[in-house]
Write a structure and sequence with these properties.
alpha+beta, Type Iii Antifreeze Protein Isoform Hplc 12, 2 domains, 2 helices
């Protein structure tokens, strides 16, 4: 009796395994094989030095959404993020600074510049936030009667935030911008008054 019961269990187990394998093969044929991809466990600001606690591996059916997507967390641990990455976002090689770069310089791509701004009576952003930098000019200097306030840099990432120097009312931040925007910020800082507004993560374009 025992050997008969054992044989029955073996047959049932084998049938289940065969059925499962057949189902997986059918899914692979219909939708593509499973591929591991690395995603962010939480919202990760620019400049984050990645650890295994920041990342997770998910199995994606079919082709990876990006040919540069990483498949193991080990490939990213110890590297620095050059752009913000939202929770669940796929981590690619383009998100990572070179392995031999560290500190603030690690997050500055070749076509970007880090610019320090001192702003009074404004919001207090955190590292990784996106901000719009606005400049207000003296209306008397505007010959065409245009709006005295313009957006100089839109949805640019904050790299550093220094402690307030005027009872928390003045903030010094460093933002990551294009060379052209860096020149606009320098001019606006010298001739107008700068202010900040917080932008949502979805506003990130990489064109600031």
């Amino acid at each position: 009796m025992l050997w008969a019961a054992a044989a029955l269990v073996a047959v049932v187990t084998a049938t289940t395994v065969i059925g499962t394998l057949s189902s997986l093969r059918h899914q692979d044929q219909a939708f593509g094989a499973l591929s591991p991809i690395v995603v962010a466990r939480r919202d990760l600001p620019v400049g984050t030095r990645l650890t295994h606690r920041d990342l997770a591996v998910r199995q994606l059916r079919g082709e990876s959404p990006d040919s540069d997507a990483l498949s193991t967390t080990a490939a990213a641990e110890g590297r620095t993020l050059t752009t913000p990455l939202l929770r669940g976002g796929v981590l690619t090689r383009r998100h990572l600074a070179a392995a031999d770069r560290s500190g603030l310089g690690a997050v500055i791509p070749r076509n970007r510049r880090a610019v320090r701004l001192v702003v009074e009576h404004g919001v207090q952003p955190a590292v990784g936030d996106l901000v719009d930098v606005l400049a207000t000019f003296d209306p008397a200097t505007l010959g065409d009667g245009g709006d005295p306030t313009i957006v100089v840099a839109a949805a640019v990432p904050v790299l550093t935030v220094e402690p307030g120097t005027d009872a928390g009312d003045t903030v010094a931040i460093t933002v990551l911008v294009t060379p052209r925007t860096a020149r606009r910020l320098a001019f606006s800082s010298a001739t107008g008054t700068l202010s900040l507004s917080l932008a949502p993560p979805e506003a990130a374009t990489g064109n600031g």
